[in-house]
Amino acid sequence: MTNAIKLAVAGVGNNISALYQGASYYARMRETGEMEKVAFGIRMQEIGDIHVSNIEFVAAYDVLPSKVGKPFSEAVFAESNNYPILDVDPTPYSFLVKQGVTKNSADSDFAIATIAKSLRDAGAEVLLYSLPTGLQWAAEAYAKAALQAGVAFVNCTPESIARNPDLRRQFEEAGVPCVGDDLASHLGASILHRSLLNLLGTRGITLASSYQLNFGGNEDFRNLRDHGASKAESKINALKQAGLDTDKVQVIPSAGHINRLNDHKVAIINIEGVGWVGRPVSLDLKLKVQDSSNAAGVIIDHIRITALAQRQKMGGFPLAAATCLKSPAIGHDSYTPEELDLSLRKLTGAEEILAEQ
Ligand SMILES: NC(=O)c1ccc[n+]([C@@H]2O[C@H](COP(=O)([O-])OP(=O)(O)OC[C@H]3O[C@@H](n4cnc5c(N)ncnc54)[C@H](O)[C@@H]3O)[C@@H](O)[C@H]2O)c1
Prior knowledge:
Layout: E1 5-10, H1 14-31, E2 46-47, E3 50-51, E4 55-62, H2 72-75, E5 98-99, H3 109-122, E6 126-129, H4 136-149, E7 152-155, H5 165-174, E8 178-179, H6 189-202, E9 206-216, H7 219-226, H8 229-237, E10 249-252, E11 264-274, E12 280-290, H9 291-311, H10 337-348, H11 350-356
Parallel strand pairs: 1-4, 1-6, 4-5, 6-7, 7-8, 9-10
Antiparallel strand pairs: 2-3, 9-11, 11-12
The structure holds nicotinamide-adenine-dinucleotide.
Nicotinamide-adenine-dinucleotide is lined by residues 10-15, 61-64, 67, 81, 100-102, 130-133, 138, 156-157, 182-183, 185, 218-220, 291-292, 294-295.
């Protein structure tokens, strides 16, 4: 695979199963020429010169006995993952999943140096952090290991890494990219909620109150039910672009874990508004998605943007990533769509091509 991103992953959960199987899915479509006919479910087939299927997994870390010490291609299907097994002939990887940092070892320089060394030994370009929400200590430990190894970092979770000014400065100074925080899913509750609240404003309807309830049947929803504080804050951040009074909005990251939903997520969005002569306007919307596909559909863009920045030695936060994050390093109010577009064009080389013309 030419240009393939050498990817390490911390946490071999459902997101990684969806990403791994998805990359194989699009690789097979590309091999048979089907990709030219129909390429559904992706925002951009190529970012710069990196195709959606151009990932090579090189290292992985977890703590579950069902995954640690197992070949990567086996571990992605082990308990507790419940993303569906696709009929895709997935690319085999025989490297073994390594023991990750634990609460006891996270402060130890030795544990961080061990992860850093294994990232370097594997030749990783990007470390994708995809642990359960609520583990700030773990996010910091893996971010430090990435920094030490000179490996770019992508934070899928709401833990504060890219928006931590001190850590961001360290990544900038080291010339290492850092993308975060928290994925805004492909077509998720956050982007829908934000779009609807924006629409209300542009139509002159006054917001009275709103809520967003989420529930699902995977481990993420089980964990968020009890450890959802950082996610709740991040989901409110995701709405701030609308410039609305977020005091009027309540978001529940996990209103429940429902086994029967497996890896599906359901979101209910309610908006109560005030229209002409004070008459009420009420809206209720239900979204149902394959939760981890919804994550992989944006992870694929984040890792490509991050790898391009890494290859160009652009340290810190690449603005091009902001649109698909709930809590981007610099906040949704501090960039324009034009600046975002320019950042992506610079990364992909399109800006230089335009300048030469
Ligand atoms: N649509 C989405 O799915 C979506 C969107 C935005 C953000 N996220 C976030 O992405 C993260 C991952 O989601 P997921 O569904 O893959 O979760 P998951 O629970 O399926 O996977 C997490 C994995 O991390 C492992 N882990 C736990 N502690 C570890 C440690 N100390 N070191 C290494 N590995 C460890 C677990 O054993 C598990 O394999 C969550 O924080 C979630 O909130 C998901």
